[in-house]
């Protein structure tokens, strides 16, 4: 299938680029002994899990349906975590999870009897330190509800726990700053960790970033696991999927109001939500920074500030022209929504063989069903 025959908007996942990230993950595992579970919150397009499975150890989740999806479509180890479980969630999840991690001591107390004998029991701790660019995504922010703070720990719980989870990084590209967090965890919680079987250090470690000091990270992880006698886990999402997919759109109009805006057949609010939430402009493959023709790449949604980015091109844009919005895999497909009734992007995978495989497509009936199935 030729890409130009595909109707926009669509996501194109590039298998070769995915494998490149996965090879780095494999190297990290080999050097450090860490196990890696894919964070489904970031990426759960299960149509490509057969590519990922040979490299990673399983999945981790943030809600009950992700647990089920990981169990059904990925296999390996299924880790279950939620900021807030209902009793019914715990009952459902305990049967299929290998590890069940509670966010608080109160949830642990209420529901541990539903898990014991079924899954390995874990608790999320909050180290109070983090590396996260934005407060919205900072697990150690003031009044954080994510995990148990060091000064609130009831030491007795560690006698009957198998593991703990920390998550305190967001797109951390520095091995040194991760090691500082690791040292802080060792100092604050080391005496508890010595009693456990496993420790998960969460996600947000950007070990596939160009120039990342992988060996340094690996030796720190290895030393930590030896020191505390635990199996270590990381829960990468973005590191696995970074730079592996484009969102391909078409310019449908060009308007001018002091600046030229190229309006495309997609919207950040519907198809690339984090552009908006974190105010992080997208990058366009066809753009040339500093070139003569300046455009706002505007969404087709009704939201006044909904734009992908402002950038420059060496030639004027034309209506009908396609643009590739790069690095659009993580936290995108999992957040797609039907705002404005905009057509939902299809999802494809470009195999290393050259074949293009369709993973998903959506139509009006999907939109309608998402709103009501039954009328009054
Ligand atoms: C508990 C937990 N684990 C893993 C992740 C995945 O993080 P990332 O996609 O940045 O690697 C997150 C992200 O929010 C998280 O909250």
From TrEMBL:
GO: which molecular function terms? Answer: diaminopimelate decarboxylase activity
One Gene Ontology CC term in the entry? cytoplasm
Instruction: State whether keyword Lyase applies.
Output: yes
Q: Where in the cell is it found?
A: Cytoplasm
Record-level GO BP terms: lysine biosynthetic process via diaminopimelate; nor-spermidine biosynthetic process; spermidine biosynthetic process
* Keywords per UniProt: Cytoplasm, Decarboxylase, Lyase, Polyamine biosynthesis, Pyridoxal phosphate, Spermidine biosynthesis
- Cited InterPro entries: Ala_racemase/Decarboxylase_C (IPR009006), Nsp_de-COase (IPR005730), PLP-binding_barrel (IPR029066)
According to its UniProt record, the EC number is 4.1.1.96
Catalytic activity line of the entry = carboxyspermidine + H(+) = spermidine + CO2; carboxynorspermidine + H(+) = norspermidine + CO2
- Give binding positions for substrate: 238, 274
Which co-factors does it depend on?
Answer: pyridoxal 5'-phosphate
The task this protein performs is described as: Catalyzes the decarboxylation of carboxynorspermidine and carboxyspermidine.
Checking NCBIfam families in the record gives:
nspC
The entry's family comment says: Belongs to the Orn/Lys/Arg decarboxylase class-II family. NspC subfamily.
Q: What is this protein called?
A: Carboxynorspermidine/carboxyspermidine decarboxylase
């Amino acid at each position: 299938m030729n890409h130009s025959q595909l109707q926009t908007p669509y996501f194109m996942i590039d298998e070769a680029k995915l494998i490149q990230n996965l090879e780095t993950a494999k190297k990290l595992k080999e050097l450090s002994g860490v196990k890696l579970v894919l964070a489904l919150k970031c990426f759960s397009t299960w149509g490509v899990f057969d590519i990922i499975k040979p490299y990673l150890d399983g999945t981790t989740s943030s809600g009950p349906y992700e647990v089920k999806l990981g169990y059904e479509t990925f296999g390996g180890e299924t880790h279950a975590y939620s900021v807030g479980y209902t009793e019914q969630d715990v009952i459902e999840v305990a049967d299929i999870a290998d590890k069940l991690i509670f966010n608080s001591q109160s949830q642990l107390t209420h529901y541990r009897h539903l898990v014991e004998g079924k899954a390995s029991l874990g608790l999320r701790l909050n180290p109070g330190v983090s590396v996260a660019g934005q407060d919205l995504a900072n697990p150690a922010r003031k009044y954080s509800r994510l995990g148990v703070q060091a000064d609130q720990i009831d030491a007795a719980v560690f006698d009957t726990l198998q593991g703990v989870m920390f998550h305190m990084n967001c797109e951390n590209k520095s091995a040194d700053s991760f090691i500082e967090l690791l040292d802080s965890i060792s100092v604050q919680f080391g005496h508890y960790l010595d009693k456990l079987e496993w420790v998960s250090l969460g996600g947000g470690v950007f070990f596939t970033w160009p120039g990342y000091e992988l060996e340094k990270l690996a030796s720190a992880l290895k030393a930590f696991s030896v020191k505390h006698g635990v199996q270590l886990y990381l829960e990468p999402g973005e590191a696995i999927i970074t730079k592996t997919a484009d969102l391909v759109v078409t310019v449908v109009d060009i308007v001018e109001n002091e600046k030229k805006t190229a309006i495309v057949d997609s919207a950040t609010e519907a198809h690339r939500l984090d552009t908006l939430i974190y105010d992080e402009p997208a990058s366009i493959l066809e753009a040339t920074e500093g070139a003569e023709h300046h455009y706002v790449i505007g969404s087709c949604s009704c939201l006044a500030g909904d734009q992908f980015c402002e950038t420059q091109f060496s030639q004027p844009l034309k209506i009908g022209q396609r643009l590739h919005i790069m690095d659009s895999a993580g936290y995108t497909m999992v957040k797609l929504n039907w705002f404005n009734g905009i057509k939902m992007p299809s999802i494809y995978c470009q195999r290393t063989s050259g074949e293009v495989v369709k993973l998903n497509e959506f139509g009006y009936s999907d939109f309608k069903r998402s709103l009501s199935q039954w009328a009054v």
